[in-house]
Task: structure prediction
Amino acid sequence: MSSPAEEIWAILREVAASQKETDKKIKEVTASIGKLGNRLGDFIEDAVRPAAVRLFRERGIEVHEVYQNVSSQRGDEGIEIDLMVVNDLDLVAVECKSNLKQQDVDEHLARLAKIKRLLPKHANSRVMGAVAAMLIPDNVARYAYSKGLFVIGQSGEHLEIRNDAEFKPAVW
Result:
């Protein structure tokens, strides 16, 4: 017959083993959610890319080219741009998210400030920014608008630029 202390230690070992298995499952689920989030981001990019030509032409920005997943690394500094809509004079860098947050807007603003330096062939372009998402809380949309960004969101089955006709985009 085992003592109460031995029984307690046996229970504690079982709990520790169970906790390790739970921790392993949590890591697996977290990794799966991360992959799903990346796929949602890819889905948003794929939905925005064909609509970008129409949307920006409607705002008077003629579109000649659309690039997806543009990246640049110069020294210690780098940027990644989900979509880049360009013509001979203008460049609109679009950040695509499933659920847009203010932090995403702030990070995109920092990215926009680096474009001319990290993509020098666009140094003479008028650089503008846009954010696109499936879910855009009203306060985040207002914040992005106030910072001079185009806000692209879903309206029924279509994407639209939500900025009003008086909107003037910030230019970097």
About this structure: The CA atoms of residues 106 and 144 lie 9 Å apart. The longest helix spans residues 4-58. The beta strands are 65-74, 77-86, 90-99, 126-135, 150-155, 158-161.
